């Protein structure tokens, strides 16, 4: 694959649930290094699109290529191993486990030693491997500023902190492509500012390509390189944030003229 080839290509993807057409003929691509956002009203098909990329849903039609390889029929864990990580709209943490253990779960597929070799702990290099993993996890904990809660049981934390731990677990997979489903939902302004900064740093410092679904237009327009708009399962626009904001179809179909006026680009959250 040449450097110029997209990291992710979605070709003619359609997805149907019974009588509901969740997605119709969706085409887009995301280049390595991009921070790409998907927006649209409730029920527009955003999460369905992300689920087709992560492998949770299998499209009825179309193909998904990751690093030039057709992954359309691969299971979620296979895509994970190829470098696609994600967070969920509704938190999916192990609430009874500590923050540290939740993040270690994220490292699982990178660990070569299993329970058999693990029983030969000192002989197989498992001890060294575990140390390496712990070090990598510590880097993530420092980056996301959750050192003070590392030993806390995940279920006891505030919503904002649990979202951050969930992000940490997804980052622990060291994905090339990270899919974020409404990372700022339910957060206060300060938490949103922090999360926006983490997303930018993941993209710029950690080199991860990001696809983000987010309803906060201020954040989306401020930090995205490109934005795609879905409406009733169809793509109605994609382009630079300012182009999308100017697009009349988007303004009427999604934002509405009034809301479009509200999303003042000078009033950005991050
Ligand atoms: N598992 C499912 N079974 C049946 N219908 C589904 C399923 N998942 C999604 N849908 C339907 O597909 C359509 C798109 O839903 P989706 O959740 O992808 O939209 P969305 O843009 O992410 O919405 P929101 O912003 O509310 O999260 C909706 O009509 C939804 O009811």
From TrEMBL:
The keyword Lipid metabolism does not apply. GO terms for molecular function: ATP binding; ATP hydrolysis activity. CDD domains: ABC_Mj1267_LivG_branched. Pfam families: ABC_tran (PF00005), BCA_ABC_TP_C (PF12399). Keywords: ATP-binding, Nucleotide-binding, Transport. One of its GO terms (cellular component) is plasma membrane. Residues 8-257 form the ABC transporter domain. InterPro entries: AAA+_ATPase (IPR003593), ABC_AA/LPS_Transport (IPR051120), ABC_transporter-like_ATP-bd (IPR003439), BCA_ABC_TP_C (IPR032823), P-loop_NTPase (IPR027417). This is Amino acid/amide ABC transporter ATP-binding protein 1 (HAAT family). It comes from Thioalbus denitrificans.
């Amino acid at each position: 694959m040449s450097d110029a080839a997209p990291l992710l290509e979605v070709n003619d993807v359609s997805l149907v649930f019974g009588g509901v057409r969740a997605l119709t003929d969706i085409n887009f691509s995301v280049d390595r290094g991009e921070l790409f956002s998907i927006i649209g009203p409730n029920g527009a098909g955003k999460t369905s699109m992300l689920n087709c990329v992560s492998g949770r849903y299998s499209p009825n039609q179309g193909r998904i290529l990751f690093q030039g390889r057709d992954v359309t029929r691969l299971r979620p864990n296979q895509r994970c191993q190829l470098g696609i990580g994600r967070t969920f709209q509704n938190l999916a943490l192990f609430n009874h486990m500590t923050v540290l253990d939740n993040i270690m779960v994220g490292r699982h597929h990178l660990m070569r030693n299993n329970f058999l070799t693990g029983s030969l702990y000192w002989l197989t290099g498992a001890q060294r491997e575990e140390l390496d993993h712990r070090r990598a996890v510590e880097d993530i904990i420092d980056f996301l500023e959750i050192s003070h809660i590392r030993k806390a049981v995940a279920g006891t934390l505030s919503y904002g902190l649990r979202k951050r731990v969930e992000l940490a677990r997804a980052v622990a997979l060291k994905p090339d492509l990270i899919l974020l489903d409404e990372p700022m939902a339910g957060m206060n302004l300060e938490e949103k500012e922090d999360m926006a900064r983490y997303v930018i740093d993941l993209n710029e410092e950690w080199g991860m390509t990001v696809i983000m679904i987010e309803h906060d237009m201020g954040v989306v327009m401020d930090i995205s390189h490109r934005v795609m708009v879905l409406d009733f399962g169809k793509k109605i626009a994609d382009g630079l944030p300012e182009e999308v904001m100017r697009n009349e179809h988007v303004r009427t179909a999604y934002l509405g003229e009034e809301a479009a006026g509200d999303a003042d680009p000078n009033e950005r959250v991050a």
